[in-house]
Amino acid sequence: MSQAFDPDAKPVLHEKWGWFVALGVVMIMGGSIAFGNVLAATVASVYSVGIVMLLGGMMHLMQALRVKKWESAFYWSFSGSCYTSAGIFAFLDPLLASATITALMAIALIVAGAFRIWVAFRLKPLDGWGWIALGGLVTLVAGLVIAAGWPVNSLWILGLLLALDLVMQGLALIVFGVFAKG
Questions:
Q1: Which of 18, 148, 149, 173 could form a disulfide with 153 if both were Cys (CB 3.0 to 4.6 A apart)?
Q2: Which tens digits make up the pLDDT trace of 87-140?
């Protein structure tokens, strides 16, 4: 059975620890900027999703042209058109797109949280089932809070989550770099 981490790589990590710390600092700075203007960070998030949707749509459409004699070519074309349209929509009206993404995120969190709670109670005789239930409850409550504030919070929620992610990843990289130095 192979290990996930190659112990021979430890000297390389030790040698490059400063790069992890530097990247962490840059990510925290980016997160701080995002915290300073969560609306702009939300728009940037929507544009990022838009770019991915556009690229995915164009690749689907190219694939549809490559398999045009195949019976499923219509589905490739339809899927590519939907992706491309969603990407264009994100650029034409990023605020409406953020409202749509926020609503979908709230629904996904509510469903995921409820499902985790249900799974936890099915695991009830086992040790640790309560932690799964607690995690599900936190996810469910997050979804309900987002849904309760929708659509107003769609102006800032995606930007806030981006800012939080950047800061948390930055902190994690700094700590990893410091431990790699040790």
A1: 149
A2: 999 999 999 999 999 999 999 999 999 999 999 999 888 888 999 999 999 999
Other C-beta atoms closer than 10 Å to the C-beta of 129 total 15
Residue 4 has, within 13 A of its CA and on its CB side, a CA count of 0
> Which residue reads 């309900």 in tokens?
144
C-alpha dihedral sign at 119, 123, 127, 130:
positive
24-54 residue pLDDT tens? 999 999 999 999 999 999 999 999 999 999 9
Q: How far apart are CA 40 and CA 149, in angstroms?
A: 19
- The pTM score is 0.76
CB atoms within 10 A of CB 31: 21
Q: Which structure tokens are listed for 171? A: 């902190």
